């Protein structure tokens, strides 16, 4: 088990665009170790997703997974563990006013911000065996995918805040009655 250092907002790597992953690359020991270490890190940090740039690797790789209740998102639906390689997201509907979530991020620890995102997307990606997936995703899972895939283009959720007045420390936001999910 290897826990990687999660880069925090302000690190310039988080603002760079990640590179595509080749089919040959996914078969390497280094790539397989990266995936294992990313899952170990995500679980250790109680995350529900993690993008490779967050651990200093500028590759278009995202992992998702919250099969058990997550202390950071106690009311969130369960998400099966997935590896997304070279994901592409197409918005299928515009964000609606009032349909947002209080997002958090392992790279912005201890903070939450209200972000309105499209609730329906088309997601295309390869998995770790180079199987191609093309699916429609809605609701909270769509938000998670968008949040994590934004990292691949150097975008943090704070860049998409609806209003900076709806951004604060997790304890303050939850104490004042805001719903994190």
Structural description of this entry:
- With 181 residues, the protein is α+β, with helices and mostly antiparallel strands.
- The protein has a domain of 118 residues: Peptide Deformylase, CATH 3.90.45.
- It is built from 3 helices and 8 strands, in the order H-E-E-E-E-E-E-E-H-E-H.
- Strands 1-2-3-6-7 form a 5-stranded antiparallel sheet, with helices on both faces.
- The protein is globular, with a radius of gyration of 16 Å.
- The C terminus is likely disordered.
Keywords:
alpha+beta; Peptide Deformylase; three-stranded antiparallel beta sheet; 3 helices; 8 strands; 30% strand; disordered C terminus
Blueprint of the fold:
Blueprint: H1 29-44, E1 49-51, E2 61-66, E3 79-91, E4 100-105, E5 108-116, E6 120-126, E7 132-138, H2 140-151, E8 167-169, H3 170-175
Antiparallel strand pairs: 1-2, 2-3, 3-6, 4-5, 5-8, 6-7
Mean pLDDT: 91
Helix content: 10-25%
- Determine and state the CATH class of one domain: Alpha Beta
Number of strands: 8
Largest beta sheet: strand ordering = 1-2-3-6-7
Q: In sequence order, what are the helices and strands, one letter per element?
A: HEEEEEEEHEH
General shape: globular
CATH topology group of one domain: Peptide Deformylase
Q: Name the CATH homologous superfamily of one domain.
A: Peptide deformylase
Rg computed from alpha carbons, rounded to a whole number of angstroms: 16 Å
Structural class: alpha+beta
| Low-pLDDT residue spans | 177-181
Percent of sequence in beta strands: 25-35%
**Tally of contiguous helical segments:** 3
Per CATH, which architecture of one domain? Alpha-Beta Complex
What distance lies between the first and last C-alpha atoms, to the nearest angstrom? 30 Å
Biggest sheet: strands, sense, closure?
A: 5 strands, antiparallel
């Amino acid at each position: 088990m290897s826990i990687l250092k999660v880069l925090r907002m302000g690190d310039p790597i988080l603002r760079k665009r990640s590179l595509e992953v080749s089919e040959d690359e996914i078969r390497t020991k280094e790539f397989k170790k990266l995936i294992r270490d990313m899952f170990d890190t995500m679980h250790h940090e109680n995350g529900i997703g993690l993008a490779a740039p967050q651990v200093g690797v500028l590759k278009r790789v995202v992992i998702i997974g919250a099969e058990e209740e997550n202390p950071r998102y106690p009311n969130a639906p369960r998400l099966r563990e997935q590896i997304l390689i070279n994901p592409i997201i197409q918005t299928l509907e515009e964000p609606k006013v009032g349909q947002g979530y209080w997002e958090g991020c392992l790279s912005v620890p201890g903070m939450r911000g209200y972000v309105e995102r499209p609730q329906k997307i088309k997601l295309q990606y390869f998995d770790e065996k180079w199987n191609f997936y093309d699916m429609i995703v809605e609701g909270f899972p769509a938000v998670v995918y968008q949040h994590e895939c934004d990292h691949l283009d150097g975008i943090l959720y704070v860049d998409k805040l609806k209003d900076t007045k709806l951004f604060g420390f997790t304890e303050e936001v939850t104490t004042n009655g805001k719903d994190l999910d």
